[in-house]
Amino acid sequence: MATIEIDKVSKIYHGGVPAVSEVDIAIDDGEFIVLVGPSGCGKSTLLRMVAGLETISSGTVRIGGRVVNDVEPADRDIAMVFQNYALYPHMTVRENLAYGLKNRRTPKPEIETRVAEAARMLELGPYLDRKPRALSGGQRQRVAMGRAIVRQPSAFLFDEPLSNLDAKLRVSMRGEIKRLQRRVGTTSLYVTHDQLEAMTLADRLVVLNGGRIEQVGRPLDVYHAPASTFVASFIGSPAMNLVQGELHGSRLAIGPALIDLGQAVPTQGPVTVGFRAEDLQVAAIATSGNASIGEGILPLRVDYVEELGSQRLVHGVVGDQAVTVALSSDAPLSGEMPVAIAIGRLHFFDAGTGRRLAWSGSEPHRTATAAGRLENVR
Amino acid sequence: MKRVQFSSPLLPYLFLAPQLAVIVIFFYWPSVRAIQSSFYLEDPFGFGSTFVGFDNYIGTLRNPEYLAIARFTAIFTALVTFFSLALGLLLAVKADAVIRGNAAYKTLLISVYAIAPPVAGLIGMMFFDQHIGPFVKIAAFFGWEMKVGLSYFDTAFAMITVAVWKQIPYNFIFFLSGLQGLPASVREAAAIDCRSGIKRFWTVIFPLLAPTAFFLLIINVTYALFDTFGVIDVMVKDKAANNPITLVYKVYMDGFRGNDIGGSSAQSVILMLVVFVLTVLQFRFIERRIHYT
């Protein structure tokens, strides 16, 4: 068990292009941190620097308070789970699990106990004497997990461990990883490009873009108050609608629509407006054109509809800007339909930098209660 | 498997004929002739031959000189195989670990392989030349008066050195490509699991290289037994009699210099059997331990 402090860490490859620049993350003991971002955002590089598989160009990494910049990977007291499992193909499952312990001169009975314990936890008992090639993808994944668990390290590092699995297995393994991490309570750093995986696993998310941190926060905080248009479009599915608008006085113009914010507005002039697809509703025909208080009406011209079963995603345009609306599967559809948005659910971003603009009309989101629930689960 | 229908059942054999002809004419026919003539005592001038049964074999195996050469061949083959594999592997591991400018290292080490074998043999020979050979000079510096072609031990030493030296690039290429074919993440996982690089090599990397190593083992044994003929020839030709030679060279000496076709044929049949048995043993006892991924 240990904390991990990543302090102004940068990685600059030959040629001077920084893959990671000046990243700061402080990870608490036992915390599950997910690094998430599109490919090439530097998340894997950052993880590999913590593991010691990649040199650190500048900054320091501390594991359990000890600076590990120049410490060999084997001496950092970390265990890593790789995307393609990286099992030793010539060893049986048992040997795979025991290898790291054997090299650390763990006494034999101790190795046997720990291997048996991990095998029981991961239901690998029947496969201990098989070679990895005789295992399915999910079983290999569990062996890779087991190899990390038996070591009882200060920290687990996960490098996209689920991306080689099929969709169904991914969901169940996701749950299993979360459950195991809760049980052993080991500090974890997890890299993924899958925002859903990030949301479901993380105690805190670190959203990376272009080698820099966009936002750090609890999943629901990030979801409900994205710090930038990048985070807004990356976290959540379907992605948050982002449209160009203009603020004049207390009125917001989005294409042909005018919305009266009626309160202190965040800024004046051009602005990027964000709203979640699920925060939009079909406006009653009677009220179309004249919105009720605290609501804005957007005239949506429908392009196509995606049926998801539980809900339907209506893709269309407002003016000439694409907007997606998530409606219940029994909502009425028509080619031209006005949709309503609660003003409190609007997000504003600087039209130039894309950073979030605070404004007093923003509705307090549900994080408080949700976070409380999470706390109870732990 | 895709099945192709031929209009005539003979047509596929016709397509195979050129390849089969080459194999039969250049491989099977000489072997059959060798087996055949090993049972005859041939007149050196070609005036007929007499059937002598196993006399040629008995004579060969009872000949103390032949047995001495067989012993030398065994030692020679073992040393050449071991050192050319070991040095090839060592260079490959080192070249693989080079980070900056590794392309240059690899090209330089591989380019040696592009030199034609006879030329390489000749260059190797020059290393041990009595007058200009740098190895002779280095040996002299340490008080070793090297006389290749005169002293049995010195000749054997030079022979083995040149034979190993010629084979290293070949092994290097295979080991290097084998190393580069290993999944990077497995090596990284090993780096996290095991601190000692040497231990890591023997417990993870070498076992994964084993298929390559096994293939090279067979190739190198065959090389040491047969393909070193040129090196030996350059080294002992026109030299005093008491020089080390291998079985293959003895076959040549007795057959083409001594005109003892029957005895020479018997030797080559024995050699064939030795190689056959060796290969079977290698597959039987070594290949079983190999993990193919």
Automatic annotation (TrEMBL), chain A:
Family annotation (SUPFAM superfamilies): MOP-like, P-loop containing nucleoside triphosphate hydrolases
Stored Gene3D superfamilies: 2.40.50.100, Nucleic acid-binding proteins (2.40.50.140), P-loop containing nucleotide triphosphate hydrolases (3.40.50.300)
Return the CDD domains for the record: ABC_MalK_N
Q: According to its UniProt record, what is one Pfam family this protein matches?
A: ABC_tran
Where are the stretches annotated Disordered? 359-378
Q: Would I find rRNA processing among this entry's keywords?
A: no
Tell me where it resides.
Cell inner membrane
Question: How the protein sits in the membrane?
Answer: Peripheral membrane protein
Query: What GO cellular component term, any one, is given?
Result: ATP-binding cassette (ABC) transporter complex, substrate-binding subunit-containing
GO BP annotations of the record are: carbohydrate transport; glycerol-3-phosphate transmembrane transport; glycerophosphodiester transmembrane transport
- Which keywords describe this protein according to UniProt? ATP-binding, Cell inner membrane, Cell membrane, Membrane, Nucleotide-binding, Sugar transport, Translocase, Transport
Residue stretches making up the ABC transporter domain: 4-235
Q: Which GO terms describe its molecular function?
A: ABC-type transporter activity; ATP binding; ATP hydrolysis activity
Main location class: membrane
Q: What SMART domains does UniProt report for this protein, alphabetically?
A: AAA
Q: Which domain of life is it from?
A: Bacteria
Q: Note whether Nucleus occurs among the keywords.
A: no
Q: Which family does it belong to?
A: Belongs to the ABC transporter superfamily.
Q: Which NCBIfam families match?
A: PRK11650.1
**Could you tell me what this protein is called?**
sn-glycerol 3-phosphate transport system ATP-binding protein
Q: Which organism is it from?
A: Mycoplana azooxidifex
UniProtKB/TrEMBL annotation, chain B:
Q: What is this protein called?
A: sn-glycerol-3-phosphate transport system permease protein UgpA
Q: Where do transmembrane segments lie in this chain?
A: 12-29, 69-93, 105-128, 148-165, 201-226, 266-286
Q: What's a single GO CC term here?
A: plasma membrane
Q: Name one Pfam family in it.
A: BPD_transp_1
Q: How does it assemble?
A: The complex is composed of two ATP-binding proteins (UgpC), two transmembrane proteins (UgpA and UgpE) and a solute-binding protein (UgpB).
Q: Where is the ABC transmembrane type-1 domain?
A: 70-282
Alphabetized SUPFAM superfamilies for the sequence = MetI-like (SSF161098)
Q: Where in the cell is it found?
A: Cell inner membrane; Cell membrane
Question: What job does this protein perform?
Answer: Part of the ABC transporter complex UgpBAEC involved in sn-glycerol-3-phosphate (G3P) import. Probably responsible for the translocation of the substrate across the membrane.
Give the keywords, sorted: Cell inner membrane, Cell membrane, Membrane, Transmembrane, Transmembrane helix, Transport
Membrane topology annotation: Multi-pass membrane protein
Task: Name the protein family.
Answer: Belongs to the binding-protein-dependent transport system permease family.
Keyword Mitochondrion listed: no
